[in-house]
């Protein structure tokens, strides 16, 4: 069953054509990695999925709901589609535990005892249960990003979007975040779409690799074909030859 479907999607910023004729289907439970040079439209594409960016033409269906339909409840979409950004966007004046508990309390009206247990379980899952009472500024960037992932998981979404989640981190912090993402991909039925330059992660965890350039999807292959065979698109082959593998 498909979780996300793009059909002939076009996106403009004024005269700038940001997304060209996007056709992409992501099935429930799939992990898809989206790669390509800077400015290729990857972040724009992923931000359309939970309505942070609108589309001008085509059809975008998320969890059975048509985002082009003005009657679609975007709050309902966002309950089921979590997002982890480059920067962590944690509430600076709230503890780590409160950061994770806040949205389920306000949006899902989850009972407080249950909410706290789920939050602590998630903190344990990301290896940071001992940091629960601290404020975000007391944690490293890598720790804050793991908290941001736990916060998204607390809503029990059906899909999780990652927009270059390690690009703002120091190199020694990247592996801890990637390991959490690998665990989610392996141990849950979560649908994941990940914008990243981390080819090691893509090679190990992805079901498919989608390559974009100039606002277009130029390659959509299994990870085996993309990495161990050879992409059919010349631009994708050039990109792959230059990328740094972590």
Automatic annotation (TrEMBL):
It is found in: Cell membrane. One of its GO terms (molecular function) is ABC-type amino acid transporter activity. Keywords: Amino-acid transport, ATP-binding, Cell membrane, Membrane, Nucleotide-binding, Transport. SMART domains: AAA (SM00382). Transmembrane segments: none annotated. GO terms for cellular component: plasma membrane. It holds the Pfam family ABC_tran. Signal peptide: none annotated. Residues 4-239 form the ABC transporter domain. Coiled coil: none annotated. InterPro entries: AAA+_ATPase, ABC_ATPase_HisP-typ, ABC_transporter-like_ATP-bd, ABC_transporter-like_CS, MetN_ABC_transporter-like, P-loop_NTPase. It comes from the Bacteria. PROSITE patterns: ABC_TRANSPORTER_1, ABC_TRANSPORTER_2. It is a peripheral membrane protein. Belongs to the ABC transporter superfamily. This is ABC-type polar amino acid transport system, ATPase component. The lineage of its organism: Bacteria, Bacillati, Bacillota, Bacilli, Lactobacillales.
